[in-house]
Write a structure and sequence with these properties.
The protein is of the alpha/beta class. It is built from 19 helices and 21 strands. The protein has two domains: about 300 residues, Aldehyde Dehydrogenase, Chain A, domain 1; about 200 residues, Aldehyde Dehydrogenase, Chain A, domain 2. Helix 1 packs across helix 4 and helix 4 crosses helix 9.
Length: about 575
């Protein structure tokens, strides 16, 4: 059954399905703010300002009060309150909305999801300001990664979902002989209610694939935002509910479960027997808790890990340093893809200008980092602000540990933002450790913290990188090597560890910026994530094929009986 919204967006869906096969560069939504109008960013700021000090309206069931405790990492008071609904009330409403949504069919659900994405895209500037003042991202990064790139990830999930759902015919005739003739009907059936637990630092980029993969495959979605980053997902839920209502469906197919930071709401609802799917991206401790306690649900969990860099040899030493500095600074290290440990052999790095010793490499990287951040106006646009005070405390604690047990190559220092004097901005902490000091580098310290680790030789670097990534998890592995045998060994390590491998990145191509429709984000093959994002399994595990069959012939026409 086709739907007008499916026909409206069919061309875009077909392009997206071609893109997930080709794996080349494609960004379906404009990345330049001016494409949304000359005044788009100003209009977005005005829309954001209207939320401040006000009550965010959502017509949801079982409202029991209001909540909200967001504070901008840039020091701007938000004072936004959200409806506080009971988990049981949202679950009951989602159950009541499920069957009409399932029976609407693949094309109807896909078309409505595509329309939700289109509406979200028109509000990218508004979302950018909301993301900036909840996650700490710079405005430019918030617009790009939280707007068009996040929407592209939602579209990518829809492309996979539609392809997986549509591969089976909806009706078939099965016949073995004259009396054994059956009519069979097949329907995509959901597992049940989906819970999407939002990230504090990348709420839309992480949530949109889960939201649209679940909704398109027939599962109602309850969005549980992080208490310090509610607004971007509240806007997203409001848009989804409006489109669902306009399309004649129950808006409670998508709802927002907001709460204050001190409540156990996420843990309580995650164990509810009606919650059958859970998506989570965030700290490992809660991810581990979900695996142990939310056994009734199918989990899609990304917690990140210790992403490794191996520096053996290079074609361009200065470009290597510059690329590493940008990767360490991007979003103040608050990405699960940020490099955490850089292995370099004691004999150093082969360059066109000669061998650079390991100690010199560490000093050079620290110096390059210092040169970049000495211009605060430029640096703050890449760094953004630190989302959580806990991250600032982690930087300080790690710095003290490094001073006592290792060496600080570049201390983390606060920077002043030219527009936001109260902004929580800190430069990366770069330390040096010996290969034997595993406690200093073989765990993720979330935030702008990285370690240069000196090893005996490249073979030990490869071995330690593999051990680290397999035991602690990792999303990517960056290797600088010009020698073919090192590259081959690195490929073997990446294959065994289940990580994406990149060689010799320089310029503006950063290891911590996976490209939609081209890169598979996570593999599900190591502790960093329980699944790949986005692939067929990411969507196919959210539904099953329901089967109904009936006999063409009446029972009286059957010319044989079973004797008892």
């Amino acid at each position: 059954m086709f739907h007008p919204l499916f026909d409206k967006h069919r061309a875009l869906l077909e392009q997206a399905q071609a893109a997930i096969t080709r794996r080349t560069h494609w960004l379906p939504y404009a990345a330049n703010p001016r494409a949304y109008g000359e005044t788009a960013m100003d209009d977005g700021k005005a829309a954001f300002e209207a939320y401040r000090g006000a009550q965010f309206y959502l017509d949801q069931p079982d409202v029991q009060g209001r909540c909200g405790d967001e504070i901008s990492p840039y020091g701007l008071p938000l004072a936004i309150s959200y409806p506080s609904c009971s988990s049981d009330g949202l679950i009951a409403a989602a159950k009541a909305a499920l069957l009409p949504w399932v029976r609407a069919g693949i094309e109807s659900r896909t078309g409505i999801c595509l329309e939700i994405l289109a509406r979200l895209n028109t509000r990218s500037a508004e979302l950018a300001h909301a993301l900036m003042h909840t996650t700490g991202q710079s405005l430019a990064l918030a617009f790009l990664s939280g707007g068009p790139q996040a929407q592209a990830r939602g579209l990518e999930a829809l492309a996979w979902a539609h392809r997986e759902m549509a591969q089976i015919t909806q009706q078939a005739e099965w016949q073995r002989n004259v009396s054994q003739r059956l009519e069979k009907r097949f329907m995509v059936a959901p597992l049940g209610i989906s819970l999407v637990i939002g990230s504090a630092t990348q709420p839309t980029w992480n949530a949109y694939p889960a939201l649209f993969a679940s909704l398109a495959t027939g599962n109602p979605v309850i969005v549980k935002p992080h208490p310090t980053a509610v607004l971007p997902l509240a806007i997203s839920v409001a848009v989804a509910r409006q489109v669902l209502k306009e399309s004649g469906f129950d808006p409670n197919l998508v709802s927002l479960l907001a709460s204050n930071p001190d409540g156990p709401v996420a843990r309580d609802i995650a164990q509810h027997p009606e919650i059958r799917l859970i998506d989570y991206a965030g700290a490992p401790d809660f991810g581990d808790w979900l695996k142990e306690n939310a056994r009734q649900a199918r989990l899609f969990v990304e917690t990140g890990g210790v992403n490794c860099v191996l520096v053996d040899s290079t074609y361009d030493y200065q470009a290597l340093l510059k690329n590493l500095v940008f990767s360490l600074c991007l979003d103040a290290g608050q990405l699960r893809t940020t490099p955490r440990v850089i292995f370099v052999a004691a004999e150093g790095v082969q360059t066109p200008e000669g061998q650079v010793g390991a100690e010199q490499f560490g000093r050079d990287l620290g110096y390059a980092l210092g040169k970049f951040v000495e211009d605060p106006v430029r640096a703050v646009e890449l760094l953004g602000a630190i989302q959580s005070p806990a991250t600032v405390a982690r930087i300080a604690a790690t710095g003290e540990l490094a001073e006592a047990e290792a060496e600080v190559l570049r201390p983390s220092v606060p920077l002043s933002h030219p527009q936001w004097p109260a902004a929580r901005i800190h430069t990366p902490l770069l330390l040096r450790a010996d290969a034997r000091q595993r406690a200093l580098y073989m765990e993720e310290r979330f935030g702008p913290i990285a370690a240069v680790v000196t090893t005996a030789n490249t073979a030990e670097s490869l071995a330690l990188a593999e051990t680290t990534m397999r035991e602690k998890g990792a999303l990517n592995f960056l290797v600088h090597a010009t020698r073919p045998f090192v590259r081959q060994q690195a490929e073997d390590v990446a294959l065994r560890a289940g990580v994406a491998l990149s060689f010799n990145l320089t310029g503006a191509v950063l290891i911590n910026q996976p490209a939609g429709f081209a890169d598979f984000h996570a593999s599900g093959a190591n502790p960093a994530a329980s699944c790949g994002m986005i692939d067929a399994a990411f969507v196919a595990n959210r539904f099953y094929f329901s089967q109904v069959q009936q006999h063409y012939l009446p029972p009286s026409s059957i010319d044989w009986v079973i004797e008892v």
